[in-house]
Structure formats: structure tokens, C-alpha cells
Amino acid sequence: VIPMIDDLHEWLEKAVATSPHRSIVHAAQCGLAGLNKYYSLTDETHMYRFSLLLHPNYKTDYMKDQEWKQVWINESLRLLREVWKEDYAPKLTADQPATAAAATPDVETVEFGQWKRKKRAARPAETLDQLESYLAQEAFDCNDPLAYWC
After folding, report:
1. Phi and psi (nearest 5°) for 89?
2. Of 4, 132, 10, which Cα lies nearest the Cα of 62?
3. Helix count (H) and strand count (E) of the chain?
4. How far, in Å, CA of 99 to CA of 120, rounded?
5. d(Cα 91, Cα 32) in Å, to the nearest integer?
6. How does the average pLDDT of the chain come out, rounded?
7. Residues 6 or more apart whose Cβ sits within 8 Å of residue 119
8. Closest by Cα among 89, 121, 88 to 103
9. Using CA atoms, how far apart are residues 43 and 57, in angstroms rounded to an integer?
10. 99-to-29, 41, 83, 92, 113 alpha-carbon distances in Å
11. Chain segment 28-58, per-residue pLDDT in tens
């Protein structure tokens, strides 16, 4: 949504600046007013920023290319991490090890069934940093971001 709004905004500003017809200039100015109204509403929900950050084509690259203030980018990342940790990151229970390495027992001294159960229990811990791993990667072409995340 944000890149589309930016494109529309640029197009309407160009129409205001270059059109010789007053009616077109007026219509474009009304369009800009409406667009700005709805663009300002994107600050009321984190989902617009999150969808930009979580889209593999954009991440923070779009924000930087559009010369967002670094403090805005940092705040978007902070909010994303906060929501991720609170609502989406796998939660460890007291009986789950903190890392997969800690969960790997000496196979010679433990029955295979126990080893397998402990290995499975470690998987949520391995995915705990899935968001950080994703954010550390460079942006990449992705035609279907929803399929990527599913």
C-alpha cells in the first residue's frame, strides 16, 4: 500500500505542477488531499509498516530509498520485533532447552526415542530468531509474499 500511495502522490503532484487546465489541477489537488488523509491513517496501525518490512522485495530498502528518517525505520523495526516477540514468536516452556545444541544429547548413552523427543522439543527454540534471520537477509525478488510466509 505505501509504495502505491507514493506512486499516486508523485503522479498527482506532477499533474498539479504541469497541467495547463485549472480543472485538472483542482481535481489533482483534491486527490492529493484525500490521499494525504488516508496516508496519515497508516500511522494508526502497525500493519502497513509491518507489511512493508515483511515483504521480501522491500524490507527496509524501500524506506531507505524513499529517504525515511532513520529514526522512523528504527521505530518500525522495534515495533515489529515487539509484536513478533509478544504475539508470534514460539514460546519456550520450562522443560524446553534454550538452543538446539543444548538439546542434543550423547546418542551413545541415551535411547534413540528420548533423543528424538528432545530434538523435536528444541525446534521452537530454533525458530525463535526466525524474524532476525529474515531481517538480516538482503531483500530479494518474490512474486508471492504470502506464499513465502506460509
Report:
1. -65, 140
2. 4
3. 9, 0
4. 12
5. 45
6. 79
7. 100, 103, 104
8. 121
9. 21
10. 56, 41, 22, 10, 19
11. 999 999 998 888 887 777 777 788 899 999 8
* Neighbouring C-beta atoms of residue 139, cutoff 10 Å: 13
Which set of grid coordinates corresponds to residue 121?
522439543
Looking at per-residue pLDDT, the higher value among 86 and 111 belongs to 86
Whether the predicted model's global pTM rises above the 0.70 cut: no
All structural domains of the chain with their residue ranges: 1-44, 46-90+130-141
Residue 106 identity (one-letter amino acid): D
Q: Which amino acid is at 52?
A: L
Instruction: Give the phi and the psi of residue 129 in degrees, each rounded to 5.
Output: -100, 25
Round to whole Å and give the CA distance between 29 and 35.
Answer: 10
Report the alpha-carbon distance of residue 119 to residue 58 in Å, rounded: 35
Q: Which three cell numbers stand for residue 15?
A: 499533474
Amino acid of residue 88: Y
C-alpha distance from residue 147 to each of 45, 142, 150 (Å): 23, 9, 5
Retrieve residue 18's grid coordinates.
Answer: 504541469
Sign of CA dihedral 45, 49, 54, 57: positive
